[in-house]
Design goal:
The protein is an alpha/beta fold and 240 residues long. The chain has seven helices and nine strands, in the order E-H-E-E-H-E-H-E-H-E-H-E-H-E-H-E.
């Protein structure tokens, strides 16, 4: 599977890749023109998914090369830094560029808001990234901290599931409801997430129907997850 990482300079693309593949964090910045990585991921069904990853330059200095990689790509990870509005605007332009070059409204894109560890300097809110997500039917959104390793494993899961072209699957969204009953919780978030990892076709979200928490996000998952003709929702009650 050909994966193309695109984003503004200093958004943390290379750091995300190094953390995702090797569990290391290199905080020394080095401008990238183009780097290549190969990674073999073992899927829950035992099969091996080979990721051919291209880390593209964060500038528009080589537009012909960039457009070539977009045409060759199968899945796109568009990265911005939450402490840089300029990088978010660049990410939006790159999402538009991907769909224009691919001429495909269903080009699989994962939008990644990186550097959540820089919360005191945040200039792009989670809600802004999420609202952009809602306007793109084939886009998924996640925030990460490559420096701390936060949500990197979840991003890898999204990457594998989102881009597998040979995956014949019944789409399932696993919903852990009643998060407002936290004092009586008997099922942890980690248990739901570990179950998610064992099911290649499943997505997981926690909600509070009583408070309305994350209901809109679940609706988005329901829309983008697949053909609603055969969508199956599974609800897991966290507090019984």
């Amino acid at each position: 599977m050909k994966v193309v990482f695109i984003g503004a300079a200093r958004a943390g693309k290379t750091t995300i890749i190094l953390n995702m593949l090797y569990g290391i964090c290199n905080q020394k910045y080095k401008a990238t023109i183009e780097d290549h990585f190969n990674f073999c991921a073992k899927l829950p069904d035992g099969k091996i998914q080979v990721l051919d990853i291209v880390d593209k330059s964060g500038t528009d200095e080589f537009p012909v090369m960039r457009d070539l990689r977009i045409r060759q790509g199968e899945v796109f990870v568009v990265v911005y830094a939450v402490d840089s509005r300029e990088s978010f605007q660049y990410a939006v332009r790159m999402c538009q560029k991907i769909k224009a070059v691919k001429d495909n409204e269903r080009a699989p894109i994962i939008l990644v808001g990186n550097k959540t560890d820089m919360s005191s300097e945040r200039s792009v809110t989670y809600e802004e990234g999420y609202q952009f997500l809602l306007s793109w039917k084939t886009c998924f959104f996640i925030e990460t901290s490559a420096r701390l390793g936060d949500h990197i494993e979840r991003m890898l899961h999204l990457l594998i599931v989102r881009g597998d072209p040979n995956n014949e699957r019944a789409p399932i969204i696993l919903v852990g409801n009643k998060t407002d009953m936290s004092s009586e919780r008997s099922v942890t978030y980690e248990e739901g997430y570990q179950f998610l990892l064992s099911w290649k076709t499943c997505f997981f979200i926690e909600t509070s129907a009583r408070l309305g928490d994350h209901i809109e996000r679940m609706l988005h998952l329901l829309i983008v997850r697949g053909d609603p003709r055969f969508l199956l929702e599974v609800e897991l009650a966290l507090a019984r």
